Amino acid sequence: MAAWIQSAVCDLKLCPYTRSSEVAGENIKNVQPGKVHYRTSQGLGVEGLKEFYAFTEDILTNSEVDYNSGILTYPQVSFDDFMQFCEVCKFGLDFVGLDKHVQLVYFHPDYRRDNVEPTDELVYGHLPPTEWYDYMKEKVGGGAVEDITMQDYQRRSPYPMINILRGEQLARATGGNSVVDLHVNGVVRKASGLSTYVRNGKRLEEVGRERLEELIRGDGTAQQTQSEQSAPATSTATATATATATLTRVWSEEYQRYYVYDPETNESTWE
């Protein structure tokens, strides 16, 4: 995955906080550059949750130099199933009070912002609503993008993955001034990162859909490097979940229902 990060994110200059797939935070005021770590999970369910929480704890309990951020890659699953799994990961952070210390960013080969509900509101870990783009462009300037769906390539990757970032580090990088008022259909919305999203949309359109698909398919067929193989979950972090022999069930306060994952069928649902 590091090769794809380098070619499709760093080389295309889509992320303002890194120019290397190995080191993040270079030349950013008030940010200490540090190593980017990569791990591969063997699946969703209890073990996948344990791997996520263990990786998160490793990042937070080590220095920024040794553990700046992390990329956790998962096997190919549907977009909806992976987004439900990400919701459970976020719920666990909220439950133990780590939501202020960690920022998650979600990627998937079939990422489409219009498939994320609600489509007209900000959703944690996701791009701003597609319909906000024209208002964002008006706010910060920038050339027009003919194909607004190119925005989705900011979050498309060869495999489903979660980028685990330090919340305090992002706050220092933006200087605490990234949130602005955005007027959408006469309603004032709070939004951040507008310049980056608008610039990236224009840049992705210039690169073109064919080239971006080539980058995704190329890394999608590559073998994971040894450093990206799943690391043992030796951390004391635990998943906020209960499990039977085959099912994982996690209660979501936000949705007031259970997320249920069946590892035998690789299917998930809400009940």
Automatic annotation (TrEMBL):
Protein name: WW domain-containing protein
Chain residue ranges for the region called Disordered: 218-240
Domain of life of the native organism: Eukaryota
Pfam families found in the cross-reference section: DUF1415
